[in-house]
Amino acid sequence: MRYSKSLIPTLKENPAEAEVVSHRLLLRGGYIRKLTAGIYTYLPLGLAAIRKVEQIVREEMNRAGAQELLMPMVQPADLWHETGRYEKYGPELLRFVDRHDRESCLGPTHEEVITDLARREIRSYRDLPINLYQIQTKFRDEIRPRFGLMRGREFIMKDAYSFDVDDTASGESYQRMYDAYKRIFTRCGLDFRPVEADSGTIGGSFSHEFMVLADTGEDTLVICSACDYAANSEKAAVIAPAADESPMLELEKVETPGKRKVPVVCEFMNIESHELVKTMVYKAGEEVVAVLVRGDREVQEVKLKNLLGAVDVEMLDDKGVFDATGVPTGYLGPVGIKVKLVVDAEVAAMRNFVTGANEKNFHFRNVNMGRDFEPFAVADLRQITDTDPCPVCGAALGMKEGIEVGHVFKLGTGYSAAMNAVYQDSNGQDRPMVMGCYGIGVSRIVAAAIEQNHDENGMIFPMPLAPVQVILLNLGLKDEQITKTAESLYLELQEKGVEVLFDDRDERPGSKFKDADLLGIPLRVTVGKRLTKDGVVELRKRKDGATEELEPESVVARIVALIDEAMKG
Ligand code: ATP
Ligand code: MG
């Protein structure tokens, strides 16, 4: 690939709209361009990096016994009605009607389509197990598309679906995918971690996410310092303390004029924030629900959503709270509250705590559950912290940020039962197929790799994901010897199967070096004045800046050896 003939529109300035480094660098390096919110064109280098991910994914999926197919992106609403997800999926599902007034949607995921295929084509236990996958553009009308390829509305996903005769066999399929995912992310050169995860709108009983560790990750992971436990904090179970058995004191109403915020109330009442209980009000579907958590804790919204079986939960603003409860925020409490009340397990174990009195400018002291109010439910509803113990072994937990690049789910028979996807067992009896589904964010991986590998000068691609392996600079376009050597190295590298971007542009050396760094190509070969002076070319590794000077005759063999080494990991 000749740079002079390629579309690599690099930018000198940081684009203002880009908040994270991968977004910034993908734009600056001319890898992607935005069409509209969350929708990008993959320019040649961007596409080349995506193809690298796809190839690794494809090889490992095939190796694990899965078969590739390609399903339609447009899906009939009827199928989604069968599973009830047409309503349940919420506004991320882009719905539309065609010219014949048929309702359709753009595929955010393909459980319905694949289950429809399976019920038509798979008849007998002899046809199972089977695992089918595709690599395809997905559409999700994300509420906040952002961070470039990290959270697009249109993005490339690998999705696989397994069908088995029973839970045991399905568990084996799940494990095969789990192992394949570990190989995939290792081969991509990523620092990652599998964690226990929430199952979300896909449903199902059991799942793991594969997280690339990076400070800009949108997910928080808890990782045990002693045992194997690692989980998304959305899922991580908080161990509730033993119930406080101290005697209940008399409920006391206290005037707290203008004291609304936790620290202000605590100071005024001379208590610590863990002696106060906050009342947080959410909209969950059509319902309004109040949640009690300790004053120094946060509600974990995914746990709340799961408890309520809601598609989504959203905290109400001051006006919403007042409309629903008749009480201004800051003075809410469980005693006599007018909306459904759920209580975090930690609060349920407390005695004699402080809450709002459901009256402006008043709080209660010595509130007690059971005596002063009865909740609809008690559950683990708070965000875990790094001072909580590991829920498995009790040791200390650490917390890290991560980017979800893959997700494996055990689905059980939810979809097959709803859609009547059955097979005949060896006794001729119809049984629902037991399913699993397995996603990888192909385009997101490119962004995640950059989040993990960059410096102030640009991207640093791990060799397996680099759009090309080598950038070759001709720094003497007007010098016959330099140009001849550079041109012949270009040919020789291609003959050896090395992917090379040949910078043959009429540009100053400084800007060629800058672009080479920005693009993040793992190896750089410079043919310049050192050739005419000393008969050498320079080979430099992007990652650590290590340089070697080599005779032109030996540089290709050295490059091939370095690539082989890097691809082995
Ligand atoms: P998230 O929690 O980040 O929204 P998800 O749980 O909705 O992800 P899945 O439905 O499991 O994601 O999709 C499989 C994979 O597709 C994810 O692991 C992620 O890598 C990728 N992915 C999901 N949503 C997006 C998006 N909006 N842009 C890019 N990649 C995405
Ligand atoms: Mg999502």
Quick structural gist:
The chain has 16 helices and 31 strands. With 569 residues, the protein is α+β, with helices and mostly antiparallel strands. The mean pLDDT is 96.
**What would you say the CATH architecture of the largest domain is?**
2-Layer Sandwich
In total, how many domains does the architecture comprise? 3
Strand content: 25-35%
- What name does the CATH topology of the largest domain carry? BirA Bifunctional Protein, domain 2
Number of strands: 31
The helix count comes to: 16
Terminal CA distance: 26 Å
Q: What is the rounded Rg?
A: 29 Å
How would the global form be characterised? globular
| Low-pLDDT sequence parts | none
Highest-level CATH class of the largest domain:
Alpha Beta
Mean pLDDT across every amino acid position: 96
Structural class: alpha+beta
Bound molecules: adenosine-5'-triphosphate, magnesium ion
User: Any idea what the CATH superfamily of the largest domain is called?
Assistant: Bira Bifunctional Protein, Domain 2
Biggest sheet overview: 9 strands, mixed
Describe the secondary structure blueprint for this structure.
Elements: H1 21-28, E1 32-36, E2 39-42, H2 44-63, E3 67-68, E4 74-76, H3 77-83, H4 85-88, E5 95-97, E6 103-106, H5 111-121, E7 130-139, E8 154-164, H6 167-187, E9 192-196, E10 206-213, E11 219-224, E12 230-232, E13 252-255, H7 262-269, E14 277-284, E15 287-294, H8 301-308, E16 313-315, H9 318-325, E17 340-344, H10 345-348, E18 353-356, E19 362-367, E20 377-379, E21 397-412, H11 414-419, E22 422-424, E23 430-432, E24 434-441, H12 442-452, E25 454-455, E26 458-459, E27 470-474, H13 480-495, E28 500-503, H14 509-519, E29 523-527, H15 529-534, E30 537-541, E31 547-550, H16 552-568
Parallel strand pairs: 3-7, 15-17, 17-20, 27-28, 27-29
Antiparallel strand pairs: 1-2, 4-6, 5-6, 7-8, 8-24, 9-10, 10-21, 11-12, 11-21, 13-19, 14-15, 14-16, 18-19, 21-24, 22-23, 25-26, 29-30, 30-31
Helix pairs in contact: 1-12, 2-6, 2-12
The protein binds adenosine-5'-triphosphate (ATP) and magnesium ion.
Adenosine-5'-triphosphate binds at residues 109, 140, 142, 151-152, 155, 157, 200, 202, 404-407, 439, 441, 443-444.
